[in-house]
């Protein structure tokens, strides 16, 4: 086998099919752990394709229209092993426990075909418990391992070691160590972010004020006089607007089709470099207006609604992004927060505004969460979300810190049009007041 490909016979043809590489398997495992964390999902339910939220001792259904998938004992082991290899026993233990449970059989019956796999899972789980400080569980699992492999000298030594530790400290036999979730140093807003994601995009009721309303956008622009767009004011500070049915199904499909051949792992700016990072998991592509006449029409429509110049160099090319299950982008700003940002290479100033088009529906998850403003917007197929990134003074609006919540069920596509400061001087006049 070469290049992770295998030839399959299908009738008279040989078909080459890509097999997942280790990077793919590791990415899938990390995605499941991400969903487990952000949506507080029960591992046992997640393995059965049932999304259940764990809050204290209560378990409630989060999203269960149907069972979507189920994981095998080996699948659960692979997820647990990824966490184990990272020294992350908080995640490793529940996944390895589920693996052991499935290997044992639903009625505790031993399946000899799974002997080696069960031993491997018991081995990893026992050491994970030991590392987490639960010597009693480590001893119990190690003894079970020896039932299936009594000649294993390493495990026999471990049993003696654990027995000695418990003899020296009898209290350890009854004390369960509390395993802390790994800290994320760069994410200071984790609790708020995850809380907003867990609403799946429903807004808090105290934001429903008379100032928030729906109307038809019919400005003096001839385009909107002939074809008004339904506008929903989502939030006032920061000012966030949702334009319903901004694109048609055919247009959304066309944009996805144009971008698909060029999709690559999304990156973020890190100094002078562009690097893939764990806190942004998606694929993206950039489309020039010359790629298709429809993109020119799209620009005209954005310009009509925003009143801004969206032609290069005053705006960036259309960025199309695809998020698979577990795909996300943790809290971030769209505008540059440092003078050394690569955004300034365009020599057109900072990103004054964001126009984001939802090109697909999502069954669950994937909401856009505004962290400091404390609200989230669900994915609305064919709609477009617009907000200002900068105050009229040119200062960045800190309330626009936002995130793309992980996709729980479905496939999320968006298209971003980022509009820059220069070229907008007479379209959005500046102000000396920091509050404007």
Automatic annotation (TrEMBL):
Its EC number is 1.14.11.2. Its main location: endoplasmic reticulum. SMART domains: P4Hc (SM00702). One of its GO terms (cellular component) is endoplasmic reticulum lumen. One of its GO terms (molecular function) is procollagen-proline 4-dioxygenase activity. Residues 314-421 form the Fe2OG dioxygenase domain. Keywords: Dioxygenase, Endoplasmic reticulum, Glycoprotein, Iron, Metal-binding, Oxidoreductase, Signal, TPR repeat, Vitamin C. SUPFAM superfamilies: TPR-like (SSF48452). PANTHER family: PROLYL 4-HYDROXYLASE ALPHA SUBUNIT, PROLYL 4-HYDROXYLASE SUBUNIT ALPHA-3. Heterotetramer of two alpha-3 chains and two beta chains (the beta chain is the multi-functional PDI). This is Prolyl 4-hydroxylase subunit alpha-3. It comes from Rousettus aegyptiacus (Egyptian fruit bat).
